[in-house]
Write a structure and sequence with these properties.
With about 110 residues, the protein is mainly alpha-helical. The protein has helices at about 1-10, 15-25, 35-45, 50-70, 80-85, 85-100. About 25% of the residues are buried.
Length: about 110
């Protein structure tokens, strides 16, 4: 619901930024199914072209998840191997949705 609020109120100053900060604080602290929903909503926020800095923050988070999840294949430490693995597929899906919705963008 918070993601939809962020998109609906994207023209209200600091609303989207506050919601994204909340998502970042909750994201992957303790792996859960909610993390996949957070990834989906962050992707929707980027697609809706909310505040400019939000795009950079979300893309940085998605890049980190992608790198860390791929590095997990080469590590023997159990805690690192499972931190982002459960959301890596959701991040790839969100990136595909963002790419599909780019129009006239570099």
């Amino acid at each position: 619901m918070l993601g939809h609020i962020a998109v609906s109120l994207k023209d209200t100053p600091k609303t989207t930024d506050t919601i994204v900060q909340f998502f970042q604080q909750r994201f992957c602290r303790v792996p859960s199914a909610v993390d996949v929903l957070i990834v989906d909503q962050l992707g929707c926020i980027v697609i809706a072209k909310c505040e400019g800095t939000i795009y950079e923050e979300v893309m940085r988070l998605f890049s980190m998840v992608t790198v860390e999840a791929s590095n997990a294949a080469y590590t023997t430490e159990r805690s690192l191997a499972s931190q982002y693995r459960h959301v890596s597929r959701a991040v790839i899906n969100a990136l595909a949705n963002i790419a599909a919705n780019l129009q006239g963008e570099n």
